[in-house]
Amino acid sequence: MLRVRVLIVDDESLARQRVRRLLQNEADVDIVGEAESGHEAVTMIRELQPDLVCLDVQMPGLDGFGVLRELEGGRVPMVLFVTAYDRSGRHCRARGVHRCDGGGVRGGDARERNNVSRR
Question: Which CATH architecture has domain 4-118?
């Protein structure tokens, strides 16, 4: 079975807990770490080389898009932007993000969350 290595990045601990809770019982998911800032995320992505990063769009300092800019030229994992704010969802779509509904893995039913996490 192919296992997906996931890094969770959000400046809010409750948001990280929610994402972790959604993914922790999936047989093919390994949560390899959590970061609470964009700068910490860049370091952890380079060190841990996750397959997927659940990345908050809006964080103080280095936001989700800033994290991706810092990784340019190197290995960039699949990214699932996570946001609780509609404005951030519109910002994602304006930048050409393929799947961004303002709810990310925080919203929708279990089947939809599983489908999103596997894309």
Answer: 3-Layer(aba) Sandwich (3.40)
Residue 31 has a pLDDT of 98
Torsions phi, psi for 48 (to 5 deg): -90, -20
Measured between alpha carbons, how far is residue 111 from residues 7, 17, 93 in Å?
Answer: 21, 19, 23
> What is the pTM (predicted TM-score) of this model?
0.75
The full length of the chain comes to 119
> Where are any strands of DSSP class E within the chain?
4-9, 29-35, 52-56, 78-82
User: What's the CA gap between 27 and 7, in Å, rounded?
Assistant: 16
**Does residue 24 contact residue 6 with C-beta atoms inside 8 Å?**
no
